[in-house]
Amino acid sequence: MKYKIFLISIIFLLDLGLVFAGIYYGGNAKSIDCGDITNYIFEQTTGDELKDMILQNVRIPPIFAAIFVGLSLSVCGLMLQTLFRNFLASPYTTGITSGVLLFASFVIFLKSFSELFAAFGPDKLLIGGWIGGLISIIILVIIASKIKDVNDIIVVSLLMSYFLGGIRAYLVANADPASVMTYYFFALGSITGIRPEDLPIIGTCSLLFALCAFLAIKPLNALLFGESYAKSFGLSVKKIRILILASTAFVAGSIMPYVGSINFVGVAAPFIARPLIKTSDHRWLVPTTLLTGIFLMLVCHFITFKYNLPFSYLLGIDRPVSVIPIGSVLDIVGGLLVIYLVVSREKKIKI
């Protein structure tokens, strides 16, 4: 137990350090120095209106977005992996991501949808994503209530994802280049466009979901030994299944319209957390996964700002790449970490 508490404390302190590093150094505004940021933290102003605006609207919101996205999607992946007893389970495999991307692509590519959502102005893509996520949630809950075998749910959800992906591919193939670029960057995932007014909604959804995850620790532990074992404890497996799918779909469908498709943190964070904490007990695994997801998001966010210049040279373009989409960085960093764990056989705990 001492080791587990020590490990969780270390990851928490690393996350805290990355938050301050991101606030102090996670930006390209060279006119803002450490003294300005210290003044802003303690006095709510740097003394310069322009610097205040940059910190409030550009630098700080992505830091909190990284925290909320890492927190929610990592635990979302853990719960789905426990339910399906499959390490590859994530919001993508349940079809939520595909639903959000499909309706976002409708708004981007279809003139009728664009005009229909025009009243929402710059938020039309967000509203379209919300609707897609909501429809996906409804379909997923219906599937979960009709199908008895949990493995069949993930098969049907994956097939639905491929079907919706085919529709998106057709729209992309017949779209103009400007619209394709808009969709492409949304699909890659980014937190740099987060506004201060977006944070209360994202934060509320994430914290409510985290509370649900901690309340679901007992049923999650029961599911580790199979649905028959959970039934022997008097638990309603069908209700647990619907609760897990509905809650994970809710948080993914609420957050992804803001940040796009950031999927891999839901796969990588639980995968990394298990060998670190050395147990499958969700009393320890949930907080470890949560903090690991935050760590991955903050590290990748920091990389997007600090290590982007070489890419312009490698790609043979004259202008520098301003910010790399965090989704692509997360796929690279998280993928390498997971491959390392598999190859080195550090992962010894199985669901």
Automatic annotation (TrEMBL):
CDD domains recorded: TM_ABC_iron-siderophores_like
Signal peptide: none
Main location: membrane
Organism superkingdom: Archaea
Cell membrane recorded as keyword: yes
Keywords of this entry: Cell membrane, Membrane, Transmembrane, Transmembrane helix, Transport
Cell compartment(s), UniProt: Cell membrane
Residues passing through the membrane, by range: 5-25, 60-80, 92-113, 125-144, 153-171, 177-194, 201-220, 240-272, 284-304, 324-343
GO cellular component: plasma membrane
GO BP annotation list: siderophore-iron import into cell
Single GO MF annotation: transmembrane transporter activity
Membrane topology: Multi-pass membrane protein
Similarity comment: family membership: Belongs to the binding-protein-dependent transport system permease family. FecCD subfamily.
PANTHER family: ABC TRANSPORTER PERMEASE PROTEIN MJ0876-RELATED, FERRIC ENTEROBACTIN TRANSPORT SYSTEM PERMEASE PROTEIN
Protein name stated in the entry: Iron ABC transporter permease
Organism per entry: Methanococcus maripaludis
Organism lineage string: Archaea, Methanobacteriati, Methanobacteriota, Methanomada group, Methanococci
